[in-house]
Request: fold
Amino acid sequence: MNYNIAVIPGDGIGPEIVREARKVLDRVGKKFGHTFNYKELLMGGISIDTYGVPLTDETLLEAKKSDSVLLGAVGGNVGNSRWYDVAPNLRPEAGLLAIRKGLGLFANIRPAYLYEELKDSCPLKAEIAAEGFDMVIMRELTGGLYFGERHTSEVNGVMTAVDTLTYNEEEIRRIAIKGFEIARKRRKKVTSVDKANVLDSSRLWRKVVAEVAKDYPDVTLENMLVDNCAMQLVKDPAQFDVILTENMFGDILSDEASMVTGSIGMLSSASLSSSKLGLYEPSHGSAPDIAGQNIANPIATILSAAMMLRYSFDLDAEADAVENAVKQVLSEGYRTVDIMSEGMTKVGTDKMGDLIADRI
Ligand code: NAD
Reply:
């Protein structure tokens, strides 16, 4: 098959890590008989330098025309870059928000997986880490508190701020369907996380998720309150398969789940729309402090490309091949500097890409 991928390297380490993901995709293409065509697009700081804005209409159109989008990262040094002291809509990160909106991406998935070989980086107690964990956090991305009406005003002489949390049943249904579909590709369990003991929006969330669950009798549904979920993530993370939740709860829980894996350079992510078009990117940023030194860990981006194979192209065997190649390289003792430990072999960004590609 032929696939057209829009590639947005972005800023900082973006070009270095995206190069390695392409290398791995090309090897997958060779082995499994697919052709991946790439269209390189500019977004973020580099687009500001070239076109004056972080995302042009033409770039967005090209991204829309593609089968899927692979992104590195955007942004410069926080507080100390030429893109920092400018209007919010002209900052590199504005490109990210604009492309998410423009592509209609409403579901974000972040896996949290503890590699056997990296258990020492896990900040949890050894007996909990020994159990391992393998979950994805599916977070609603375009509704809820972050997109509701807000204002600050003086009420009876007291400054008062209001944020509104709104969800309609359609917004909940479409992400619930994504959550159950993804659970079907995994261990078939959805934990829907809400605050239904307090919030109306959570009660509606719970009701709609239960309705959707009826169409997936092979998937187990469990409801959990968000405060309990935050505790369970550090007490017994092995229990989770797919955590399905709204925007703000997902924002917080996905960072918590990432933290317990202990290694930022390993964390992939995907944002999905109602079509097969998705945007795949590492969870980390552009790491300007290490850009251009060939030391960045490309694995998060390579694993994001694997998610693209699985979720946008339905190429599950190919995605498995990439994930297994990563595991193999780690078990052979190769490490980039961020995950280095005693007795392991330190390699640079390009070498890590070569090793993973070679094991496809
Ligand atoms: P960051 O994730 O870029 O870096 C945090 C720390 O982790 C740094 O020390 C960095 O060197 C290290 N790190 C990150 N990725 C790594 C990798 N692959 N290999 C090895 N080490 C890695 O976060 P930050 O420093 O807060 O932000 C830097 C810039 O990235 C900012 O401009 C920020 O706005 C932007 N950002 C972009 C995205 C995105 O494009 N999706 C996400 C987060 C931050």
